[in-house]
Amino acid sequence: MKIEQLHKLYLSCNSVNTDTRKINAGDMFFALKGENFNGNQYAEQAIEKGAKYAVVDEADFANSTNIILVDNVLESLQKLATFHRDYLNIPIIALTGSNGKTTTKELINAVLSKKFKTTATAGNLNNHIGVPLTLLSMNQDTEIGIIEMGANHQKEIEFLCNIAKPDYGYITNFGKAHLEGFGGIEGVIKGKSEMYNHLIPRGKTIFVNANDSIQVEKTKHAQTYSFGNTNSDVTISLIDAQPYVKSKYNNLVIESQLIGAYNFSNIAAAIAIGNYFKVDDTNIKTAIENYIASNNRSQIIKKESIKIILDAYNANPTSMKAALLNFEKQAGTKIAILGDMFELGGEAETEHQNIVNLASYLNINQIIFIGENFFKTSVNTTKASKFKSFDTFKTNFDMSQIKNSTLLIKGSRGMALERVVHAL
């Protein structure tokens, strides 16, 4: 079936779905395959549950008129998304980066939705499946689309840009994330810059943090809209970051509910993009001030005498260092519980030792390292302890000693350190 025909059928459906457990009446079901599952096997079940159409790529399962046979389900999903993007012909803002992507995306969406009907990436559905699903969640009411793009190897951002065809782009930063897949920090810069390589030849606009020398250098021949210092298109300054980030913009003081100076650039990007799209200043202020972090990202949780900074969604050497430097500035007794950082390849041993050395040096009262990588490090301070796994920590650490203190919890997603909150 041609994509044009598939698109007509898609327009008659309520939404796109890839999980039969979440089917709603009128959905179009795409029978994706994975290492341990074959969605083709569930096509008939999807129809029985109310799906209007199911898309399969194995002829044995195309046994009714509302089950559509294509050559490759995933490729059809991606091509349909691109066709739909062209059909809508609306401005698309794409963003990627090593740290802060999701928070920045949520802030941009909060600001722009004060003036426009927006559709943004849900959660962190930012890969080769999530990006098409986001595009296909847009309809003719959508005025601006906001697409988050994640990557852990070369050519992935290029591939996602070819699907989404963004008109605007922003890279939050270039940090030590996914070093194993990208091949070191230079590989990270090259991989993330694929967004620039897509936008610049097409004369599209790139939002640039003027305080980031890599961004400035990489976009010096591009059409840009910059923010940050006084030489930028829009000046935004950091007033304070203790305990929450406070910024100044157009003589307005914006008091966010986000902790850490590292969140300032995320907030500034949202302010600048709001300014570019002529969102009223007071609405920009309201949007930023009302945004509350969730999903284990810089979340503040108060539990009796304990203030918890839960930043356990993910971690890499860059974000871990930023979190620790910010945490040191907190008042009172400070306890850090840090979990392993994943996907560092040959740099894992060095980067984990660097974090141990930094944490041990900082003015933090107690440090707990959890995970196989941290367990291999050399810890030379009495205020630190290490555990090979979360279960070992939970079994051998007396949680009752954590009281009247501020607690930082940070680690890679695979460590699931939000379990510490439940253990408390």
From TrEMBL:
One of its GO terms (cellular component) is cytoplasm. Pathway: Cell wall biogenesis; peptidoglycan biosynthesis. It catalyses: D-alanyl-D-alanine + UDP-N-acetyl-alpha-D-muramoyl-L-alanyl-gamma-D-glutamyl-meso-2,6-diaminopimelate + ATP = UDP-N-acetyl-alpha-D-muramoyl-L-alanyl-gamma-D-glutamyl-meso-2,6-diaminopimeloyl-D-alanyl-D-alanine + ADP + phosphate + H(+). It is found in: Cytoplasm. Its EC number is 6.3.2.10. Residues 96-273 form the Mur ligase central domain. Keywords: ATP-binding, Cell cycle, Cell division, Cell shape, Cell wall biogenesis/degradation, Cytoplasm, Ligase, Nucleotide-binding, Peptidoglycan synthesis. Signal peptide: none annotated. GO terms for biological process: cell division; cell wall organization; peptidoglycan biosynthetic process; regulation of cell shape. One of its GO terms (molecular function) is UDP-N-acetylmuramoyl-tripeptide-D-alanyl-D-alanine ligase activity. Residues 15-70 form the Mur ligase N-terminal catalytic domain. ATP binds at G97, S98, N99, G100, K101, T102, T103. The keyword Cell division applies. It comes from the Bacteria. Residues 297-374 form the Mur ligase C-terminal domain. Belongs to the MurCDEF family. MurF subfamily. Involved in cell wall formation. Catalyzes the final step in the synthesis of UDP-N-acetylmuramoyl-pentapeptide, the precursor of murein. This is UDP-N-acetylmuramoyl-tripeptide--D-alanyl-D-alanine ligase.
